[in-house]
Amino acid sequence: MAKAFQRTYTQLESITKATISLKAQGVSNDELAVVDGRLAQVVKIKGDLVTLQIFSGTEGIPTNAEVVFFGEAPALNVSDELAGRFFNAYGKPIDGGPEVEGEHRQIGGPSVNPYKRKQPSQIIPTGIAGIDLNNTLVSGQKIPFFADPDQPYNQVMAQVALRADVDKIILGGMGLSNDDYLYFRHEFESAGALDKIISFVNTTDQPPVERLLIPDMALTAAEYFAVDKNEKVLVLLTDMTLYADALSIVSNRMDQIPSKDSMPGSLYSDLAKIYEKAVQLPGGGSITIIAVTTLNDGDITHAIPDNTGYITEGQLFLRMDTDTGHVIIDPFRSLSRLKQLVQGKQTREDHSQVMNASVRLYADAQNAKTKLENGFDLSDYDLRCLDYAKEYAVRLLSIEVNISIEKMLDTAWELFAKFFSKAETGIKQTLIDKYWPEKA
Questions:
Q1: 379 and 337 in a common domain
Q2: What share of the chain is helix, strand, coil (3-state, %, to 5)?
Q3: pLDDT at 297
């Protein structure tokens, strides 16, 4: 913005650990400013007293520091030139390329009007059987991965990005290690998929509060392609726990009273305003959000996953399968609440029955494992269930699997025929007559 439109002040009223306050006129909420050379944002206005959050902290800022208001909230230039580019939390290129020319849009705007929304109905195949077979994704859905910090969730996100059948992939990376950032970049470039991927990245060596801008930057870009261009857009956000931690840092520095698990009382609404950007539009455009929420010692009741579960339409739970050594998508703790909208409608007629049978037999294997651990004798059926569970985990639940949904269904039928009788599967006879392998 031209210097003539900027307002400059040099007298601060107060300084806290994260904020400064001063008297100023004509300032708007969320407006950006520079305080003593540091980027800041308006977080509170009471009369003519304005409070700004300093992204990098207030240490060393004098009471006569120069404050220059920009006259606008954080914004992103949106155009087709975004595709294939990497940006920081402020929407500035970090890939050595030029600034993007396009329409200047403020980030963090309202969600799409509910009147303009359509019920999600388009499948998003990922090639990962633990998702496509058991927890089928639907365009316009919002769903998180729940994972322990040592699980390879970023690798799974990269796989989803490269396999998903969508027009644009938008990555919002919050608190990424440099290794993870370079991993994403290398995977996208190696796959030749940069032309449909846009990345906004905050790394661990950058101020944590900058992470608060990443989701809004990613979703502003997503809305451009989904609403303006009628494209199917998949937004990947990792890690929302680090986003929430940044909210906590700001809240604590502003001396706000914390809520559960030291999180701010606004946590639910802060998360909801992000996830509710997921939408299926009548014109065919859509925004689907897959996010990572890392767990603290597997604690699903922590405020972050707890609030997330209320907002989203299910969850995908990553865990290490100790019997096979593979990382799998747990069929018991994972759930897609919208899968019934596409299973058997956009997939084969046997999808739901095969999914239910495979998970039930896997549950029987877990029961057999418990009996074994407690010294009980196992029946022939128990032994067959245990053998089935190992193959099921390796061939269908493992995150390494990359096959079509039809191949997933055929693989499941193959496992049924290998370990069980037709009656033991509990599947309708008409489907058994049609899909049971001939050689079995």
A1: no
A2: 40, 25, 40
A3: 81
